[in-house]
Amino acid sequence: MLTLPSASTPALPSPLPLALQAFLAGILVALALLSILAYRPLRDRVLSQAGMFGLVAAAAWIAYSGLLASMLPPALMPWIHPASLILGGLCLAIWERVTAALLAASPGARRLAHIRRLTALTTLVIALAALLPSTRFHRLAEIILGLLAPLLALLTLTAGLRARREGLRIAGALVAATMALLVCCATLWALSARWMGSSLSLTILQLALVVLAMSLGWAMLSRMMELRKDTEAAQRAQLAVVASQASTLEALVTQRNAELSARLRELSEARQSSELANRSLQRALDQLEQAAATDRLTGAWNRRRFEEAVMPEIALAHRRRDPLSLLMFDLDHFKRVNDTHGHGAGDAVLAGTAQTVRMHLRASDSLVRWGGEEFLVMTPATRLEGALGLAEKLRAAIEAIDFPDVGHVTMSLGVSEYAIGEGLEEWIERTDQALYRAKAEGRNRVIAAPAPEGPEGEPSSERSLLEVIWEDTYSSGHALVDAQHQRLFRLASTLMSTLTENRPLTEVSLRLETLLAHTAQHFHDEEALLRQARYPDLAEHAIVHAALLSKAWKLQAEVKAGQLDFGRLITFLALDLVKGHILTEDRAYFAHLVSATGPDSMPPAGA
Questions:
Q1: How far apart are the C-alpha atoms of 231 and 249, rounded to whole Å?
Q2: Diameter of the chain by CA atoms?
Q3: Burial class (CB in 10 A: 0-12, 13-18, 19+), 84
Q4: Can you tell me the distance from the alpha carbon of 391 to that of 195, in angstroms, rounded to the nearest whole number?
Q5: Where are the beta strands (DSSP E) in 393-543?
Q6: How confident is the model over 395-420, as pLDDT tens digits?
């Protein structure tokens, strides 16, 4: 029967054994602290279990060896024996958990895991029976623990030997620790059978526990090293993965940057191509407009261009009372030139005449080929006397020219000053009559047209109501915007004059189409400038532009279909386009545009 010395009344140990016993308890506590401190960075459950084993083993040794008896009062002495039994059973249960985890990598050891676990649980349950207040239960529990402890140690030894044969490095330390545990069990049995004295058995137990603690400590150190290696390997693997991901990401970024650069190059090339196309288109439009407005042979304006330009000048004459004069001339006996020298020589004479006349005109004067050899010269801000002087100068210059194969030619001129309230057709007719008189009186001379009959006065109320006249107060201070606004004023005024003169619908449609083309271009340039100036109300302004253009195209479609609504078209020109938009809504951005971009800014290229 296994009896523990603490079951009787032991004598107090001598100072030297007491010191040795305390040293052994310190070793066990140090093992526990080492395992507990290593658990925090490594987060391994086995280390925490080993720490608990060391603490419980130290407590069991203190209770069994007599250290506890030397520290407690006599009244608590009966509880030392049950406490040593419970701590011993708990120590064996924790031992099984620690060794099972350390041998988990061995298939041979795992085959004994179930029976070892069952033995450890049985040992713990039997140890708890020591809590019952019965000496008989204590003796029975002590006997059963004396049988189960070596059984668990033998099972652990078998598992450790199997693991060692399978190459598990930590198994050697566990085998040594298990052998020390078997020595403890054998020593207790020898002490119970009185084959060994108390002093000798205590010494053997101390040595066995030292070996057990050292072996288990070595196993824990090996476990820590393996865990650290595994952690470092995992960190290296993680770093390798991160490096691989970073390399992949860098390659992806490089690829995306290359794709973006290629796309930007494509967009830049497309933008340049678009700008070239736009410039080519603009040049083509300018050439078409120039061709549509000028005579191919002489480079002079044609009738259409003259009629677009003369109406704003007439409007200025109405408003400011500025003088405006007109010269009409043709070459004398020009038919003889064609009949005698051929049409090629006649064309050369016409071209040379136009070139000579243009050399004597101001930048504000306009040369118009009215038909055949008949020309007009419009001279703004010029009274009749000045126009007569210019006409005489032109007559003398043409007479002095010696045209190749033709010789000298002369021309006759009629001159008139515009009379307030006079219609364009009446003014041209009055000038033509002066030219007729010059021819009738012998040719190669200048004749002034008399003023029209009747008192001079303001234009009729109908005419003044249908005119849109540009004033300096309408200026924005921005060169391009003001130039385009003035052009729209002239085109709108010309179109309204065409409407009041009952011109054919085809002419009305052509003038309306010209006005809409310039309006669309103005809106486009205006939005580009406002976008460049970061105008806050650009979106609303663009919506107004779109609405005006939509209404204008509908009116144009109606005119082309022969459904001219005079009132709607006049309302659109005078109220919607000029007064409602140019003179009202556009004024809201004048100050912002000039302050943000300057008075001479241009729309961005390709805008």
A1: 26
A2: 172
A3: buried
A4: 158
A5: 411-417, 446-448
A6: 999 999 999 988 999 999 999 999 98
What mean pLDDT comes out for the span 431-457? 83
- pLDDT band, residue 70 (cuts 50/70/90): low
Closest CA to 79 of 138, 13, 144, 148: 138
* CB-CB contact of 2 with 192 (8 Å): yes
| Burial degree of 511 (CB within 10 A; 0-12, 13-18, 19+) | buried
Round to whole Å and give the CA distance between 65 and 21.
Answer: 7
Cβ contacts of 272 within 8 Å, gap of 6 or more: none
Q: Which residues contact 534 (CB under 8 A, 6 or more apart)?
A: 596
**SS3 per residue for 36-105:** HHHHHHHCCHHHHHHHHHHHHHHHHHHHHHCHHHHHCCHHHHHHHHHHHHHHHHHHHHHHHHHHHHHCCC
Task: Count other C-beta atoms under 10 Å from residue 515's C-beta.
Answer: 22
Q: Which residues are bridge partners to 403 per DSSP?
A: 407
How many residues would you count in the chain? 607
**Phi–psi pair at 325, nearest 5 degrees:** -120, 160
What pLDDT, on a 0 to 100 scale, did the predictor assign at position 326? 96
DSSP output for 157-193: HHHHHHHHHTT-TTHHHHHHHHHHHHHHHHHHHHHHT
User: Which is higher by pLDDT, 204 or 528?
Assistant: 528
Burial of residue 267 (CB within 10 Å: 0-12, 13-18, 19+) is exposed
Task: Answer yes or no: are the C-beta atoms of 47 and 220 closer than 8 Å.
Answer: yes
Angle between helices 505-532 and 538-560 (to 10 degrees): 170
Query: Which helix or strand (DSSP H or E) is residue 394 part of?
Result: helix 384-399
Phi, psi at 194, each rounded to 5°: 60, 30
- For the chain, helix (H) and strand (E) counts, in that order, are 20, 5
